[in-house]
Amino acid sequence: MEHLLNLAPAAWKDWFREQGEPAFRARQLQNWVFSRRANGFTEMSDLPLRTRSRLEESFSLWTTEIAEQTHSSDGTEKLLLRLSDGHDIECVLLRDGPRRTVCVSSQVGCAMGCVFCASGLDGVVRSLTMGEIVEQVLRLDRLLGDEERLSHIVMMGMGEPLANLPQVTAALKTVCRPEALNISARRVTISTVGLPEGIRRLAKQGCPYHLAVSLHAPEDELRSRLVPVNQNTGIDAILQAADDYFRATGRRLTFEYVLLSGINDQPSHARQLAELLRERTALLNLIPFNPVSGLPYRAPSVAALQAFREVLESHGIPIRVRKRKGSRIDAACGQLRRLRSLQNSSASPR
Ligand code: SAH
To answer: Does 227 share its domain with 262?
Structure first.
């Protein structure tokens, strides 16, 4: 059986044609899947029964199971999804004023090896298919109430999206279309560790997605310690690729900077960072470290964060400090999966 969401809706049309069905059936199916939030083919009451059972025989709509669902008092909801091959991934729904944002994973695990991140501690298992990426968005969309509408997508879950670019962009194209969830490319953020080739390939897609580059250090020696893949690239090449992305899309860049107490949160780091960002049209997103059990890092003190911020502001760098949402449900991606796999391995008899 084929995963319906692994096919672009254009291929759904072909299937109906092969079945000798009228073309408008594909539109009805799209409507059920993306707008009417159907949970199965049997619900699709304006399709003939025969068509519904043919769909049922040919396709699965879902390939994942909800292994765990958590809810935080600030409206954040998190799903741990079990893939058909038994691996787990995470995705999160965030509610912020009128915004409804989903944070989606692109891989099982991650190969980038950032030393403070829970997702990559055990390396990468595999990349997700387009269907598995679309499925996360739709599963989260189905947690919304009738009055709520998904407005933003961020590729900030597990994995490095630019290391799985074809599947990520195919999934985004599918869900963003006006006939699907109708989300403009401007409301989609792709967060990357900073792979220059991947950034250039993304720019060539001609979709002005918002690009966020995870910088985390202002010079190569420190960055290579925190983000080992930096040894292959270096900050210069990443910034050049990001500048090209800005020129190609006109979208203001975001640089993310996870603050680790005593490591990259000193005023001297802030001054170097200001130097790097001064001439760029960029927003700096400061992210206080979200503790990961077993890792030795700490979030900066309030005073250190304030001092860091003031240095950058005095240089005129636009800053946002990321609010912590859903921290009680381990909403930082990779954390819930890791917790569960640690619990499972300690619970299994040996
Ligand atoms: N691979 C992509 C997406 C990663 S998740 C990337 O590197 O950008 C999105 C952001 O969360 C990244 O900036 C990542 O470095 C950051 N992050 C990872 N673990 C974190 C933690 N424990 N606390 C705070 N931010 C973290």
So the answer is: yes
Measured in Å, residue 197 CA sits from the centre of ligand 1 at 20
User: Does an H or E element contain 187, and which?
Assistant: none
Q: Model-level pTM?
A: 0.95
244 Cα–ligand 1 center, Å: 23
- Can you tell me the distance from the alpha carbon of 245 to that of 202, in angstroms, rounded to the nearest whole number? 8
**How many angstroms separate the CA atoms of 266 and 303, rounded?**
11
* 155 to 16, 38, 50, 120, 267: CA distances (angstroms): 32, 24, 38, 15, 30
Tokens linked to 304: 């250190």
* Helices vs. strands in the chain: H and E counts, helices first: 12, 14
Quick check: is 179 catalytic? no
Count structural domains, the chain. Answer: 2
CATH assignment of the domain containing 202: 3.20.20.70
Distances (CA, A) of 86 to 81, 236, 337: 9, 40, 12
Per-residue pLDDT tens for 70-115?
Answer: 999 989 999 999 999 999 999 999 999 999 999 999 999 999 999 9
333 is catalytic: yes
What residues flank ligand 1, with Cβ below 6 Å?
112, 114, 116-117, 156, 160, 191-193, 214, 256, 258, 287, 289-290, 292, 332-333
Can you give the residue range of the structural domain that contains 239?
65-347
- CB-CB contact of 52 with 45 (8 Å): no
